Amino acid sequence: MINDRNEPSIPPEFRSPMHDQFDLPMNKRGMNPNRLSKENESDRKKIIGLIPRGEVIRNFVYSRAFDEVNERADLDLFAVPLAAQIKDDLEGRFGKIYELDEGYESWPVRFQRELIDISHNRWLWSRAAKERSRLRDSEAVSLLQKSKRSVKKLISYPFSTPGGLRLLNKAERSTSKLLSQDDYYERLFKKLSPSLVFNGSHVHSRVAIQAVQAAQWLGIPTATFIFSWDNLTSQGRITLPYDYFLVWNKSLKDQLVAMYDWVREENVFVTGTPQFDFHFRDEFYLSREEYCQQVGADPERPIVLYTTGMANHMPGEPEIVEQIADMLGAYDAEPRPQLLVRVYAKDRTGRFEDLKRRRKDILFPEVEWEEAWLTPKAEDTYALVNALRHCALGINVASTVSLELCMFDKPVINVGYNPSVVPKSVLSYADYYEFDHYKPVVESGAVRVAFSQEEMCSLIDESLAAPEEHSRKRTALVDGMFGSTLDGRSGERVAEVLLSLAARSE
């Protein structure tokens, strides 16, 4: 829990206003790492870091993980196209940024990967896998699209076994190499001669495939970070045979080893996730008065924080938000709570615009992310940390934010009932609490699920009146999931692992 943390040792230069976040770091001897003496250069390994999605910058740049690496190795970064300011800041910090290029993939390769994805999903066939399949089915709109989808599913089903998946994986890797038409990364890696290639996100990183497989074909060790706690049970199969994995916690390590028979336990490292480091660093803390002034809240009134989800997973959510605002508006006790809504940064549907216009009693602070590859700005780190710190209660639909609220020992209510516009025959909010990754959270008692509007109203009253009631359960959940990794140093551990892996390579 936050109150029990050890104080992290943060370099003084990192204690700066948010717009100075990208100042060049200094190493422990007070030297700019880009100006190390020549006598040390011969001992420095070359590490390549891949940034296939904007959130990788939050995890490994804002947390200073890549700075730690750059102090003791030569770090070259390859990234998706970034906003000009962010790219300039990164280049000032790490030198030239190479652009990640997805490159051309022949249709047999794309087809095989789609079969692997469908087969893997069918093999899992958990609640999350079924929901993922439903979403893919819904994306097929025309008769032709539906026919293609049906044929692919039919072909995939016989391979929905560990043996079938191994066969498909082997075929896809062979086909990828045989039909590869672009040797750009192979030529570049031969020139750069890295000791390790690290992919900052194993999921949603199709743009990184060419770079990773080029390294593997050249015999260069590769590592990746399992991006989120639900990815192994709710996302597609890992097709690239990485040598090493970095994960949030032991549970993810155990899942990974059990799911992929080619992954060796000793090659999976529990580092914690740097995205939570900021919660445990005092320099990100604003006073309640400062924070409330920024978001337009009354510091004398309790804040109820609602964090929204993905539009395709949580349709009709604006209705839920407005209902909660009405509940708070009818609250008898004084001071009356105020509702602050943090809209999911990747939700670009505009579905909350009408609510913003009509309901001036609901606070909708700006979520500071760049449009380019949906990259969080440094400012957003302050916004999230302080929303969690200063709220009295958090409400969401089966979100990772539930864990973060528990870290701050805040009561959590999950929405388990549908908006009136969403029939249960289409989708049920309650199903999310049966997903493999989230069910243990509910069973722990650390969060409470409201299965009706009436229950939501009752739970809000109880949580605001007695916020300490489930404190022990929240502490037990966080301790059980994360152990000693919630100390603000996950970024440092990531850096140590990467440097150690690079040192193994001769």
Provide a quick synopsis of the model:
The protein has 21 helices and 15 strands. It has about 500 residues and is an alpha/beta fold.
Annotation keywords:
15 strands, 3 domains, globular, six-stranded parallel sheet, 506 residues, Rossmann fold, single chain, alpha/beta, seven-stranded parallel sheet, 43% helix
SSE layout and pairings?
Layout: H1 38-41, E1 46-51, H2 55-62, H3 65-72, E2 74-79, H4 84-94, E3 97-99, H5 107-124, H6 127-139, H7 143-156, H8 162-178, H9 184-192, E4 196-199, H10 209-217, E5 222-225, H11 231-234, E6 244-247, H12 250-259, E7 268-270, H13 288-295, E8 303-307, H14 317-329, E9 338-342, H15 353-358, E10 362-363, E11 369-370, E12 375-376, H16 378-390, E13 393-396, H17 401-407, E14 412-415, H18 439-443, E15 448-450, H19 453-465, H20 471-482, H21 490-504
Parallel strand pairs: 1-2, 1-4, 2-3, 4-5, 5-6, 6-7, 8-9, 8-13, 9-10, 13-14, 14-15
Antiparallel strand pairs: 11-12
Architecture overview:
By secondary structure, this protein is an alpha/beta fold. The chain has 3 domains: 215 residues, 3-Layer(aba) Sandwich (Rossmann fold); 71 residues, no CATH class; 201 residues, Rossmann fold. Helices cover 43% and strands 11% of the residues. The protein has a 7-stranded parallel sheet with strand order 3-2-1-4-5-6-7, with helices on both faces. Strands 10-9-8-13-14-15 form a 6-stranded parallel sheet, with helices on both faces. Helix 18 links the parallel strand 14 and strand 15. Helix 5 runs antiparallel to helix 6 and helix 5 runs antiparallel to helix 8. The N terminus is likely disordered.
